[in-house]
Structures are given as C-alpha cells and as structure tokens.
Amino acid sequence: MFVPRSLKVRRNANDDGGSCAAKKVKPEAEDPQLGAGGDGPPDDASGTKEAALAAHHGAQPCPLPGPASQMPEGGLAGPGQRAQDSDLLEEPVKSFSKTQRQAEPGEPVCVVCGRYGEYICNETDEDVCSLECKAKHLLQVSGAEDQLAPGGPQKAGSGPAAPRPASYVYTEHAFISNLREDQIENLRRQLGIVVQGSGVPRPIIDFEHCGFPEALNLNLKTSGYEVPTPIQMQMVPLGLLGRDVLASADTGSGKTAAFLLPVIMRALFQSRMPSALVLTPTRELAIQIERQAKELMSGLPRMRTALLVGGLPAPPQLHRLRQRVQVIIATPGRLLDIIKQSAVELGGIKIVVVDEDKKLFKPPVLVFVDCKLGADLLSEAVQKITGLKSTSVHSEKSQPERKNILKGLLEGDYEVVVSTGVLGRGLDLVSVKLVVNFDMPSSMDEYVHQVGRVGRLGQNGTAITFINNNSKRLFWDIAKRVKPTGSLLPPQLLNSPYLHDQKRKEQQKDKQTQNDLVTGANLMDIIRKHDKSNSQK
Ligand code: AMP
C-alpha cells in the first residue's frame, strides 16, 4: 500500500506538541516557480514557506497557533487535515526510537534507525523518528563533517557556498596489490566472479580496502555488512574508478549496495548536483533503493535523495527535486513526466530520452489485435503508459499512410506497432524480434502467419500469445502446434476441458478412420458384417 507523503502530518523534531513553530526555510528551498506554477505550494508568507517545505517532506503546516499557521491557499492539505492536526497537538513528540512505529511503504524513514520518520530535523532537513534519533543524527553529522571538511563544521544541505571536502581517488589497497595474479584468479573462480573488458581492477576483499570515510564504514557495519558480497567485491572498485559497468548477479546478492557505494562516494566529493540518477523499473524497487541509500548515507554531510515514482503525489516529489539533491531514484514514467511538465534542471545529468529508448527497444515489437479500434486504442495506451513511440496499422489507414508507417518501422522510428491482420502476411519485417498476439487470431493459419513475422531468415525471435475462452475451439490445435517447439504452455490451457474434449473427439475420429480402412486383418469381418446386414433386410 502506498501512503502519499502529502497526507502525512509531520512536525519539527523539537516541537513539544504545544507549539508548532513555522519551519525555517533555507534559501535554496525557496522557488518562485512553485508559488506561481500551481503544482507546488506558494512561498509568499512564512506560513506558505512552511507549506513549501512541508510539501517537500510530504508534511503539512501546523494550523495553530497564530496567523503564521493559517492554512495557505493552494496548499496540499487533505480534507482530514484539521482533525489530524488536533490529534497531533495532543500527542507529544516521541522521545525514544523504540516508541516509534515502523514506516509503511512510501513513508519517510528515520535516517538513523529506519522507523517512521515522523519529524523533520530542522538543522539538517532530514527525516527522524524521535528526539533520541535526532540527537544521534546530529552527532553523526557533526562527526562526519569534522572528518571530511577540515575547514569547519557544515550543515547538510546548506547550499552551494559549502567548501567541498578533499577529493577521493580509489587506489588499490596494499593487501590486494600484494596478492599474486593466480591468487586473484583463484578467488574470482571460487566466488563465481567472471569479468570481461580491459583493465578490470582486482576485487576488494574487505570494505576497509576502499578507504571510505569512517561514517560510511560505520553505516556498513550498522547495516550488518561485515564483508562485501562477490558482486560488491568486483563492482565497487570498478565504480569507484568511474568505469562503465554492466553487471549481472542473482537477486539478493547485494547489487544495490554494489552500485550505491560508488554513487555515494562520487556524490560526497562532487559539488555538481545531482550527481546520480538511479532508474528502476518499478516503484517498489525505487522505494527499497532509496531506503538503502539513506541507510548508507546516514550521517554523511550534504547527502540527500529524491524519490520520483508514480502512485505518490508529484508536487512534493518535484519540490524535493528542486532542493539540491545528490541522488535521484526514479521510475522512467514519473521522471519523464516531471522533466516534460516542469522543465526541471537536472544539473549535470543529461537525459536524452528518445535516443536512449531507441537503443533499448530496437528492434520493434509487433502487436496483433483483432479490430481496428483495438489497434488504435492499444497503440495510444502503450505510448501513454510506457512512453515508447507507438503506431497502429489497419485497413482504415490509407495506402500512403501505411507505407509511411512501414518505412518508419524499418528505419527504427517506432518501437511498437499495433496491427490488425494486415501486417500478418507477406511483409518481410526482418527486424522484428518480438510478436505479441494480443488477441489470438481466429484461425491457426492466420496465427502461423503472424508468429512467422519473427525469426525470419534464420534469425531468432519470440512470440507471446494471449489466449482466453474466445478461442477455445483452437485449444487443442494450438497445443499440438506449439508444444513440439518446446514453448511453454500454461497449465490453464493444458488442463482445459475444451482441449481434452477436442483431443478425445480427434482420437475417436482417428479410430473411426482406422476402422473404415480395409486391410487383410479386417477383410473377413467386413464381409461378414455386410452379409449380416443384407440378410436382415
Ligand atoms: P540486494 O541484492 O541489493 O537487494 O541485497 C539483498 C540484501 O542483502 C539486502 O537486504 C541488503 O541490505 C543485504 N546486503 C547487501 N550487501 C550486503 C553485505 N555485504 N553483507 C550483508 N548484507 C548485505
């Protein structure tokens, strides 16, 4: 379940429940566009500034006492706000972490202990669950700042004027350098680490080999990361060297920290913001990655994340994005929406949406449906939901239109083509790698032509077919045709009574045909039967 952050009431960590002092807004948090744009809270008065910051954290301004606490027009308060706020006034700020509940998915989490981040730490703008964790958090921050910035203490998120700490360059630890090449090879072999490419650094064996700041080493220990997992051993030094990496490892093998650790180190020692964009296919994964990033970044100065995912209100996410964050964790759909709608500056991160998509989704997917309207609607839906460039082809499109579409398809202009049967036959679309029969065609003949659009000229391809009871009369034919290719058939199809009925009927028919054949073995039987029926007449 996703709980929109904007519906959560959150207070400053030092409120005693009786005073809801307006939250101090740092200069970089102010954004004139937000007041005018309507997609974020206005910032023309202290109360509205509070709302702006509240929106950034998904928080709501406290309505009492005094005029500064009036609910600003256009603020993000929900209908139940007043009731929630009066509840809030009766409940004192939690003193201890253990009295705080666990965070629900999508809710802010305490940067120290990971429980529900009910409050915002005024000094650092981070989420905390209690006074206890606020104190710990402030200690961690000042400790880390002392280690990283000898020029004096500096507050997290305190703006561009902050002097950057000394730079970080990954150098191989002496322990690793002293190992022989055959020992390294043996280590990789035993851990199942396979590398390709030139100049791949040796794996680390301990996190201490990376020369991380003490605060980060401490976070690793607190998270229970005593030793790196194999993917981390090899990937962390690669990432720390700034190399491009394509890595693959099993689920649960520690891939997230493998890329987060180099990302955090880069963000720590780089003044450009944001310094990293993590794209994930699902919002659940994005939430999980942000949680892990916060855990690892805890206590490190000026480390902030923005989560851009669907299913949660966009304005607080956009507002957060404008707060000078180091790491953005996003799903592609929400990121594209935010970029398109708000022309938000993503610092040094260059996003070339169309080209990247083309690279990822070439060659095109050919989707077959059974009617023209279906083709138009599905094509529109695909484009809207996935952002992939999609078009439809059917008999109502004029010949020049169809020709243009086909040309575009062959030149890679479209990533998805939704078609009725018109593309099923004849055309040699050699570049199609995936056919989806969104509607099962009405005959096996047609089906064979449609799936035949992939794998032409000896190339490999994949066909995915959706079937339901509308094509029940073809079940046995489909099974007979597709099973010998080694394709996976769903149990719902294989166990369907229609399929068994058709199979039985076919077997009976075969038997009948067999019986009707005249052979040496049954010749006398046939003559006797014939005589008998004649004598009865
Ligand atoms: P992942 O594959 O990134 O989803 O990680 C799976 C789980 O392993 C997560 O709960 C991580 O917190 C945990 N994890 C990652 N790296 C380590 C490590 N080096 N030691 C112990 N646990 C780890």
> How big a fraction of the residues is strand?
5-15%
**Gyration radius, rounded:** 32 Å
The biggest beta sheet reads: 5 strands, parallel
Order of the strands making up the biggest sheet: 8-9-7-10-11
Q: Give the helix level as a range of percent.
A: 40-55%
The 3D shape can be described as elongated
Low-pLDDT segments: 1-9, 16-90, 149-164, 352-356
> Can you give the mean pLDDT?
74
Structural class: alpha/beta
Question: What oligomeric assembly is this protein in?
Answer: single chain
Ligand inventory reads: adenosine monophosphate
Count of strand segments: 11
What attributes characterize this protein structure?
537 residues; alpha/beta; 5-stranded parallel sheet; 3-stranded mixed sheet; 20 helices; 11 strands; elongated; disordered N terminus; binds adenosine monophosphate
Overall description:
Helices cover 41% and strands 7% of the residues. The protein is of the alpha/beta class and 537 residues long. Strand 8, helix 15 and strand 9 form a beta-alpha-beta unit. It has helices at 32-37, 46-56, 81-90, 131-148, 174-177, 181-191, 214-222, 230-240, 255-268, 283-297, 314-321, 332-342, 353-361, 372-386, 399-410, 444-451, 475-482, 491-494, 497-516, 523-536, and strands spanning 11-12, 119-120, 127-128, 276-279, 305-308, 327-330, 365-368, 390-393, 416-419, 434-437, 462-465. Mean pLDDT is 74; it is low at 1-9, 16-90, 149-164 and 352-356. The chain has a five-stranded parallel sheet. A three-stranded mixed sheet has the order 1-2-3. Strands 4-6-5 form a three-stranded parallel sheet, with helices on both faces. It is built from 20 helices and eleven strands. Adenosine monophosphate is lined by residues 224-225, 228-229, 232, 252-257.
